Amino acid sequence: MAQLICIGLDLAWSTRNPSGLATLRVQLGDPGRQNLTGYLVDSRILQTDEEILDYIQAQAGGDPCLVAVDAPLRVPNLTGQRRAEAELNQVFRAYAAGAHPANRRLLAKDGQVRGEALVQALSRYGFREQANIERGKLTRQVTEVFPHSALVSLFGLSRTLKYKARPRHTWPERQQAWQLYQHHLRSLAAADPALQGHEELLQVEVGSLKGRRLKNYEDQVDALMCAYIALYGFRWGSERCRSFGNLQEGHIFTPLPPRTFGAD
Fold first, then answer.
1. What is the pTM of this model?
2. Does the pLDDT at position 180 exceed 90?
């Protein structure tokens, strides 16, 4: 039976920090590819580019594979923000889910942006950077995604969840946001497409984690969200998702809030 691999990567902008990865396997027995279920088969933390590349190769094998990355994959602009951030923020600023600006002055080290290097390395294994995830298309591609906008869209939130460490977010507020995040991810067991096998990851009591252990958990859960975005894009494509920006100038692919379906 044919299968699709969806890999989520919460890629740190610098190799000094670890990155989270999660892999879903999807059986494709239904020719219409409806009633899809993604099974979480692995999640982990890795550090180096070589470790990440080896992981993707090992998980993907020779199967069709969608790699969804939360990090800029193409950054031609030296300063300011990309067209992708500007366009996405027009839709998601009202939900406090706008994207931070990406430019080479912020991201480039020795003239290289980490996401761009990843795309180049994956091209040797048959992966192509694509701005859109097309409905039902079996391919090997890497696409930039954004968990915050996806959370708002998939779960009908009025504001993004404030689970990350920020000066304005108190620890009680973050714990409450984490409880909601875990609850929403559990609810994907009954979604279309469905998510299974993630129960153990979501049983973690976030209040017991501190420092690096908490950050590593956050990165793994965000990687799971990235992998689900890939699966959701494969299920629905442009009917419920949009790519902001373009392939040449940088893109961000995300599910859309229900009220914007079909909007130009």
1. 0.95
2. yes
